[in-house]
Design goal:
By secondary structure, the protein is an alpha/beta fold. The protein is built from five helices and six strands. It has one domain: HAD superfamily/HAD-like (Rossmann fold, 3-Layer(aba) Sandwich), CATH 3.40.50.1000. Helix content is about 30%, strand content about 15%. The longest helix is centred in the middle third of the chain and has 15 residues. The radius of gyration is 15 Å and the shape is globular. The two termini are about 15 Å apart. Bound molecules: zinc ion (ZN). The site of zinc ion has 5 residues, from loops. Zinc ion (ZN) binds next to loops.
Length: about 180
């Protein structure tokens, strides 16, 4: 079976627009530093790269689904040989009661079913507690990756990651050395 890295988008792939804010068009999208290099390194170690992102800006009526697709197609074009192997998103409003919005593990489980991925050999990397909760529920290892890390003890049990790092580069370093 394939092993994968599941990555959150805002705050991991591109600069987070701020809490409760959304990247509403391609002009606002800024890649995080050293992103391509990090994705290249993961792929070189045999990982399938799968994006899993909540984009409720669509469900909230702040942007259209077409705009979200346009952002992702531009992102993929810019990433070139480092483009994601698969992209999963939840575009629903938080109150819509859908089954795909994180912390639901559905986007990861769907990706595993679609691409023959073993969640136990895979890692979820995200900057929010719900990313960790999602990854844990799917049976993956989890890495919380953000500039301002919380203390482990302040997190709810289901939101405690296997590792915490300030940058994606450090997370990638740990993954490739831990094999
Ligand atoms: Zn959804």
């Amino acid at each position: 079976m394939t092993k994968a890295i599941f990555l959150d988008r805002d705050g991991i792939i591109n600069v987070c627009p701020g809490q409760d804010k959304f990247v509403l068009n391609w002009a606002e999208f800024r890649f995080m530093p050293r992103l391509r290099e990090n994705l290249k390194r993961l792929r070189a170690h045999g990982y399938f790269l799968s994006l899993a992102t909540n984009q409720s800006g669509v469900g909230r009526g702040l942007m259209t689904l077409d705009t979200l697709h346009e952002i992702h197609s531009n992102m993929q074009r810019e990433l070139g040989t480092e483009a994601f192997d698969a992209i999963y998103f939840c575009a629903h409003h938080p109150d819509a009661g859908c089954s795909c919005r994180k912390p639901s593990p559905q986007m990861i489980l769907q990706s595993c079913a679609d691409h023959g991925i073993d969640p136990k050999q895979s890692v979820m990397i995200g900057d929010s507690n719900r990313d960790i909760e999602m990854g844990t529920a799917a049976g993956c290892r989890t890495i919380l990756c953000k500039e301002k890390l919380p203390t482990f003890e302040s997190l709810k049990p289901q939101q405690r990651p296997d590792r915490m790092f300030k940058t994606l580069s450090e997370a990638v370093e740990w993954i490739v050395n831990d094999e």
